[in-house]
From TrEMBL:
Principal EC category: lyase
EC number(s) from the headed UniProt entry: 4.2.1.1
Species of origin: Kocuria turfanensis
MF terms in GO: carbonate dehydratase activity; zinc ion binding
Cofactors that this protein relies on: Zn(2+)
This protein's name: Carbonic anhydrase
Keyword ATP-binding: no
Amino acid sequence: MTPETRSDDSSPRTPAAAWQRLREGNARFVAGESLHPNQDASRRQSVAAGQDPFAVIFGCSDSRLAAEIIFDLGLGDAFVVRTAGQVIDDAVLGSIEYAVANLGTPLVMVLGHDSCGAVSATHATARSGDMPRGFQRDLIERIMPSVLDARRHGESDVNSAVVEHTKQTASRLLEQSRIINEAVSQGEVAVVGVFYHLEDGQAELVHGHGTWLPAR
């Protein structure tokens, strides 16, 4: 089996091991040395009967933020949920709770990125007061508290607002979901906030919840 199509059947079962696997995958991606694990026919067949992902990645829908690529993952490795601006709603909470409670996934990552369009639009609305039409308004309203908090802290640029929004979103998962909160309190799950840099591909840890917290 070539390195480009190797399968890795050892799925991390602790938050620390899951974070380490993601860090290693991102480092390979940044260096241009991705292994593309678990992407061959054998892996496809082995996961057909069920899934055992080691991480939930809740990220922005931006086309440049493909989680399996930037963390060098394959089939069955990550349970991925995406909305514009990584905005939480009931469906998002239910999806993440399913992974935590039913699949035993030990790590939940909230993944934001620089130059986020949804946060940029919210930033512009905060300045002008002009709301967009349709359901985009709901996105703006949910992101606005983070933008305003960043401004109160003296941070007026979009990327600072993205970091603040990533932190607040990670905290809201615990505040709004008893299932996630209990799993974190028991040490079975960690919730981390990560800021992704589009140009160099680095995934930077900016926030964390849990009895285990990763080294930055």
